[in-house]
């Protein structure tokens, strides 16, 4: 069906709807889907040659964020309009076709003034920033899994770790290692993940490495829980690798291939707990990568499934600022820029 092209890359903030009745209109759809999030645009496929321009049975809805689109997909086959239960899935870019322009995924590394995470954007939530270096910064997570949930991001625009130049990769690695060292000093381990799902708008492609500190008693179950969720959502497919840099070797020379990367506490040894690294690359699989996979891993392991949807657990500005300061104070002795002096 036009628009539901399995060969194209997904558009994470847009869903494709099927099994719509002929008399459906945009307002009716908006009422049904508003529970999923803020709707930016609704486009129904209509028959221009019929009186009243009836719906052809399918259409597209663009949300304000990928998480909202994912929430809508979770209601696939459950929402009813005009006596029919809609089919809902993430939309995909057209690979040519009869109408419309192909929505390209641009891989660029440069500042974007309209990107939520580029520091040149005046709307960046600076009160959540923990520390900034010339190439990367650490910030608290909005709607965190726990109070120490943070993100490591490039200062400039970079879509994913695999597309970063080596010098930026090195800086990101150093920050991950520094936070892990801080956690170990406090008697904790840490879950690390990165998700790369190309978006049609380049300004939305700003990479994030997410880190969630956990208690040592929970670390022994981390790998088992990761494998369990991968089997449920991805049909398995996790591949063990030695470093974050090796992810690119699993993308078939296509930098737009979506992937998930994990750093997982492994076996405990006399020298400390081993860090195991895994990648799931979506280029050769029909499984749709869940936008929330890494967060589900953390929430499930910590028995905090009530925090799975970040939008439902957002803190007020004062709390966000307090959590950022608490992490900043703890991280100060381990901060890479400080150790380099």
UniProtKB/TrEMBL annotation:
RRM domain boundaries: 13-93
Keyword RNA-binding: yes
CDD domains, A to Z: RRM_SF
Keywords from the UniProt entry: RNA-binding
Pfam families assigned: CwfJ_C_1 (PF04677), CwfJ_C_2 (PF04676), RRM_1 (PF00076)
Regions annotated as coiled coil: none
SUPFAM superfamilies referenced in this protein's UniProt entry, alphabetically: HIT-like, RNA-binding domain, RBD
Keyword RNA-binding among record annotations: yes
SMART domains: RRM
Secretion signal, residue range per the UniProt entry: none
UniProt xrefs under PANTHER family: CWF19, CELL CYCLE CONTROL PROTEIN (PTHR12072), CWF19-LIKE PROTEIN 1 (PTHR12072:SF4)
Protein name (record): RRM domain-containing protein
């Amino acid at each position: 069906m036009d628009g539901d092209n399995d060969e194209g890359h997904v558009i994470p903030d847009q869903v494709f709807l099927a099994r719509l009745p002929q008399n459906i209109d945009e307002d009716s759809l908006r009422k049904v889907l508003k529970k999923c999030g803020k709707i930016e645009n609704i486009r129904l496929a209509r028959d221009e040659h019929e009186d009243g321009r009836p719906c052809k049975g399918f259409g597209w809805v663009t949300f304000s964020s990928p998480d909202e689109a994912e929430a809508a997909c979770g209601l696939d086959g459950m929402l009813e309009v005009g006596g029919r239960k809609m089919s809902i899935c993430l939309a995909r870019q057209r690979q040519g076709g009869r109408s419309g322009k192909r929505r390209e995924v641009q891989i660029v590394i440069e500042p974007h003034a309209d990107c939520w995470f580029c520091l040149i954007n005046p709307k960046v939530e600076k009160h959540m920033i923990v520390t900034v270096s010339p190439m990367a910064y650490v910030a608290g997570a909005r709607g965190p899994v726990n109070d120490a949930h943070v993100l490591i991001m490039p200062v400039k625009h970079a879509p994913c770790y695999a597309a970063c130049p080596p010098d930026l990769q090195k800086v990101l690695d150093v920050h991950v290692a520094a936070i892990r060292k801080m956690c170990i000093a406090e008697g904790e381990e840490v879950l690390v993940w990165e998700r790369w799902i190309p978006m049609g708008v380049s300004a939305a492609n700003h990479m994030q490495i997410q880190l969630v500190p956990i208690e040592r008693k929970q670390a022994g179950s981390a790998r088992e829980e990761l494998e369990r969720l991968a089997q449920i959502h991805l049909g398995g497919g996790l591949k063990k690798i030695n470093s974050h840099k090796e992810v690119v070797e699993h993308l078939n020379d296509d930098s737009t291939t979506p992937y998930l990367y994990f750093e997982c506490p492994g076996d405990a040894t006399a020298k400390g707990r081993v860090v195991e690294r895994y990648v799931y690359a979506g280029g050769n699989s029909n499984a749709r990568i869940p936008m929330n996979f890494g967060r589900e891993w953390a929430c499930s392991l910590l028995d905090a499934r009530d925090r799975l949807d970040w939008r439902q657990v957002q803190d007020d500005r004062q709390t966000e600022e307090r959590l950022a300061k608490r992490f900043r104070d703890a991280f100060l002795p381990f901060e890479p820029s400080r150790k380099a002096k």
